[in-house]
Amino acid sequence: MNGYIPAPESAAALLGDNSAAVIRLLADRFMRLNPPAPYVWRTFDETGIQADSKGGYHFNFGDRFPKAECGQRGVAVGDLFCPQAKDSRFVITCHNPVEVYLNGEKVFTSVGSRERSGDADVFSVTLNEGFNRFAILAEKTKIGFSCVLQNAMPQWEPCNYVMPFTDRGGESGWVYALLPADSPLPDVWGEEEPLPFLPTLETAPLQEEGSFAASACFDLAERRSVAWHKPEGVTLLVDGGDANATLSAGTHEVIMRGSLSDLAAVTADVALRPPVSTHGRCTPYLVYGPVLDEPIPAFGRVGSAGVWRPALENMALRPYVETALFARWTYPLGVTLYGMLRAGASLDMPDLTDYVLRHVKQVTGIDEYAIYDTQRYGFAGVNQQLCWLDALDDCGSFGALMLRCDPTGADPDVRRMADRIAHYMMQEQPCTSAGAFCRRDDTIWADDMYMSVPFLCRYHEMTGDTAPLDFAARQLLHYKDLLFLPEKQVMAHMRCLIHGENNGIPWSRGNGWVIFSLSELLTVLPERHPQRPALLQFFHELTEGYLALQDECGLWHQILDDPVSYLETSATAMMICAFARGTRNHWYNEATAQRAMAAAHRAWKGLTELAIDREGNLYGVCQGSGFSFSRTYYRGLSWRFNDTHGIGIVMLSGVELMETM
């Protein structure tokens, strides 16, 4: 089978056999297109439409307009930011007639018979890059005046909406209104509000008793002191010191303490602004409290009195991740950044290491806030997968990366998060009666070995506890019993527990997940561990199965035993990693090691000649998969350009190969 790119356009044509340069090419492209960026902080009106813990937005017009008459209509409008254009599916539950509009076009109309039953409907849309405007139009009937809208996979495609219209300033949430009977949808597609929407823009100052802290900053164009006017009850520090001191040009921080009324009376000959850039209705300073003598948390942290907020009634300040691939907690990014981290350390590329550490620090530093946000508002704007925590996908891959960055758990955030993940894996994740991980739909997927075993290995190293290693060893042997295909010495992708059958289809990346995870465990498993011989035998059997199915060009196919299926790069990279580790750690005899390394070199050569171009683009990574008992389904899984399932593991495969030479 031919490769994905003409030979002159390949990375190999540009860089030859310089593996470090190919890895640098991949990493530079990824970092250039996904630069570090802070979270976006948006105000949120607590009286507005909110989401539940599963990302469903409840348009409870009946509660909000209790005097509405049958035939009247409720309308809600919100903007959804999408970092990249994509097709997406949404789920809607209607209790009355409902229409959904997207970017000016009607995309859904409810069916009357389903309004009575309350059954959910699914509809598909195409989202544009940037902001996409949704409008909900619902009619009140005798039996209902509400609907619930959510993305079909909210943990994977979190939907956090922004209020439209210029005057709203990018505040988080939806605007809504009550319309007369039989009213059509107003023209909501411009930037000016066509009618008075709720929540109202008029917001009262916060009214609470007690002492509060206030945080702000200001800028000076030249060196000078600042003239402050404040009530006697207010204490005020600038940059942690005397407010009357002469200050240099630049930005300065202000912390005040006092009652809300006294804080509101403070004035200065400089313009105060919040300590972080905010969108929506806000005040020149944020407040925290009421407080007594307890320490005041830094901005972005949670204290005993909650979090920092505007000094406005019912107004919160919430963080949102609005980048495509930076500062997100997802399992594919755990794979990508693990490869980049190892490349940075092994190849003396500190900028790669710094990039990964910065990404991980940002998501671990916001974890406490994300949990608070979830508990208070239903669905967080950051770390959605970890807050969801309903499957191994949600925690294991990125959790393993997190512990690669902080192996001892020295950061309290990391230790707390690692303990939470370990408890979930070993105490809460569904298992079969024999103890094998399973999913909530009574299926078992080969993927889940990568979603668990590497983290359990890292957690063992952090704690010194052998229980996670024992647990990981049992899982891999359970999965061999359930998914191994002895006639070809490869793994089926999944098993249905209801029917008691695996699907017999060796999906390539599922196999890659398993042998890679085996190599992770064997690297740290004690030589005298009772399960080590069985795990080594498993590793050897898989090696033989994969060696027999390698394409002559060096890569493996999307379905391992189907040479008509396309060449798949993420699985190929995981085979390279496993073979290199098996050779370097002397898990093979000499003859097998020679065959494995010859295969690994052919595979790397194939990647650089056929699947990586001279711009650092990666081809041939299978999209994220569901499951089926039909090979037609797996043949239909298309490959993705520069997919994060593949970028990092390809970098890691180059590193592993170089370290074994």
Q: How would the blueprint of this fold be written?
A:
Blueprint: H1 11-15, H2 19-33, E1 40-45, E2 57-59, H3 61-64, E3 73-82, E4 86-94, E5 98-102, E6 105-109, H4 112-117, E7 120-127, E8 130-139, E9 147-151, E10 161-162, E11 175-179, E12 211-220, E13 228-229, E14 235-238, E15 241-242, E16 250-258, H5 260-264, E17 267-268, E18 278-279, E19 286-291, E20 309-310, E21 315-320, H6 331-346, H7 350-365, H8 367-377, H9 384-388, H10 396-405, H11 412-428, E22 443-445, H12 453-463, H13 467-483, E23 484-485, E24 490-491, E25 494-496, E26 501-502, H14 508-524, H15 532-549, E27 556-557, E28 567-568, H16 569-584, H17 590-611, E29 621-622, H18 631-635, E30 639-640, H19 644-660
Parallel strand pairs: 1-18
Antiparallel strand pairs: 1-21, 2-9, 3-8, 3-10, 3-11, 4-7, 4-9, 5-6, 5-8, 12-16, 12-19, 13-17, 14-15, 14-16, 19-20, 22-25, 23-24, 25-26, 27-28, 29-30
